Amino acid sequence: MSKFAELTLDGKTYQLPVIVGTEGEHAIDITKLRDMTGYITLDTGYKNTGSTTSAVTFLDGEQGILHYRGYPIEQLAEKSTFLEVAYLLIHGELPTKEQFEVFERGIRRRTLVNEDMRKIFDGFPVNAHPMGVMAALASALATFYPGAIDPNLDPDAINLRIARLIAKMPTLAAWAYKNSNGHPVNYPQNKFNYIENFLYMMFSLPVEEYTPDPVVVDALDKLLILHADHEQNCSASTVRLVGSSQVSLYSAVSGGISSLWGPLHGGANQEVLEMLEAIHQDGGNVDKFIEKAKDKNSGFRLMGFGHRVYKNFDPRAKIIKVACDNVLNKLGVNDPLLEIAKKLEERALNDPYFVEKKLYPNVDFYSGIIYKAIGIPTNMFTVMFALGRLPGWIAQWLEMRTDKQPIGRPRQIYTGHTKRDYVPMEQR
Ligand code: CMC
């Protein structure tokens, strides 16, 4: 039986349909509210607003549950690979062996980037932040592959654009890094798999024989899986909003990269490491930084702590914490920052401020320590997040398109001046 919510306004009662998701989430459908009542809803930061229905990712913030297409993140992180997860997110089902081979091959043979695109790198300053470079180059892909601009592409044509994007992002990321060091770039070698190729382009010198370390490959593969999607977060919502104007996939993803860069979103992983380094250099006094984070006037937050949705624990952080210990052990790395991070976590989890506000370590808290251990420089951390999040952005974009969702265009409540007459400059 259909359920309704009743709303009484100005003496009149309206019935609003209740929508229930497959995992029992409830929403009041207000799509007809303005037509019916003349009112809109106000919800800055969309804390209570479902912007879409979606079958891609389910998460329950109270219980710390995260599923991609129904599969628990713990199982995928342990048993799957990043490209298989990418297929799952984009196409909705785990691939058969044959489907995966076609998908993987389609990506492997498109890793090369147009030489003219490489010249764009010369225009960036040497110390350009790689996230700025990535956002610009993702957008530039639409100029090198103008076919992507067509809003009426058929599924095969869309799959080709998707394969190009997934294939070229690691090349662009590694080149952004090489460029920031003033080093010549490495061209992709397609004898390597997706993760190995990225590591080769990042770390190999042009003439040396490169053998990827399986511990590093596994760690990176797992990290990318953990970042692959997170339903309607800031960057995914950005990709949907930008994409809703029917601009190309590349432009929509460029918007997602820019959104991810901010310190409250993906940029937090860089900030966490810088914070841990600052604590270390300050003598390792964890309590001092805890107190600072609690002081609203300090403007300082414990980076890697807190989450808009998770109010119990972040399941990704749990997996990463264990992975962090494993990777550092296997690589024989003894990083004092890991000890500081663990101490910080322990203190915060026992401090009433963090307990009452339900602030727990998030995905970014330990990821930076692994990135550092496998040699990824700090300013590339958020780029790693972007590489991981790419299939999620694509899946969200595709779903928006397939569901024929309308252009995103929120309303507002105007609070500025009411009408007033223009005054010439000399009379002001
Ligand atoms: N350190 C200290 N206090 C905090 C923190 C923190 N990291 N996070 C939230 N608070 C306090 C905040 O001051 C507020 O206090 P009050 O209610 O007294 O005003 C309360 O907790 C709620 O915070 P909020 O900012 O209203 O919550 P939000 O849902 O708008 O923000 C957040 C979520 C992730 C932006 C925030 O917790 C934060 O800034 N964390 C640090 C940055 C970070 O780690 N970001 C990565 C998020 S996970 C990766 C991703 O998916 O992007």
For the record, what is the CATH homologous superfamily label of the domain at 268-374? Cytochrome P450-Terp, domain 2
Give the overall silhouette. globular
CATH architecture of the domain at 268-374: Orthogonal Bundle
Number of H- or I-type helical stretches: 18
- Beta fraction: 5-15%
Ions, cofactors and other bound molecules: carboxymethyl coenzyme *A
Low-pLDDT windows of residues: none
Q: Give me the strand/helix succession.
A: EEEHEEEHHHHHHHHHHHHHHHHH
Instruction: Assign a percent range to the helix content.
Output: 40-55%
Could you give the count of β-strands?
6
- Mean pLDDT over the full residue set: 94
Oligomer: single chain
Could you give the distance between the termini? 64 Å
Q: Describe the strand arrangement of the main beta sheet, using strand numbers.
A: 1-2-3
Rg over C-alpha atoms, rounded to the nearest angstrom = 23 Å
Instruction: Report the top-level CATH class of the domain at 268-374.
Output: Mainly Alpha
Notes on the protein architecture:
52% of the residues lie in helices and 7% in strands. It has 18 helices and 6 strands. A 3-stranded antiparallel beta sheet has the order 1-2-3. A 3-stranded antiparallel beta sheet has the order 4-5-6. The mean pLDDT is 94. The site of carboxymethyl coenzyme *A has 20 residues, from loops. Carboxymethyl coenzyme *A binds next to loops.
